[in-house]
C-alpha cells in the first residue's frame, strides 16, 4: 500500500513541476524545484491560477 502512495505522490509532484516549467517560472535544470514538497509545489501552482 505504501508503495502506491509514494508513486501517487511522486506522480503529483511531477505534474506540478511540469506546470511550473511550462509557465516559465522554473527551468527543468533548476535543482531546487525537485527538492520542494508536494504542498509547496501545489501552493506555487495555485498562485499561478490566481487573477
**C-alpha geometry:** globular
Distance between the termini: 39 Å
Instruction: Estimate percent helicity.
Output: 55-70%
Radius of gyration: 11 Å
The H-and-E topology, N to C, reads as HH
Average pLDDT for all residues:
93
Largest sheet: none
Write structural notes for this entry.
With 51 residues, the protein is mainly alpha-helical. The chain has helices spanning 2-22, 38-49. The chain has two helices and no strands. The radius of gyration is 11 Å and the shape is globular. 65% of the residues lie in helices and 0% in strands. The longest helix is centred in the first third of the chain and has 21 residues, at 2-22. It comes from Halobacillus kuroshimensis. It holds the Pfam family Fur_reg_FbpA. This is Fur-regulated basic protein FbpA.
Summarize the structure.
This protein is an all-alpha fold and 51 residues long. The chain has helices spanning 2-22, 38-49.
Amino acid at each position: 500500500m505504501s508503495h502506491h502512495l509514494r508513486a501517487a505522490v511522486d506522480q503529483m509532484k511531477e505534474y506540478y513541476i511540469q506546470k511550473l516549467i511550462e509557465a516559465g517560472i522554473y527551468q527543468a535544470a533548476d535543482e531546487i524545484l525537485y527538492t520542494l514538497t508536494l504542498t509547496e509545489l501545489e501552493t506555487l501552482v495555485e498562485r499561478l491560477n490566481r487573477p
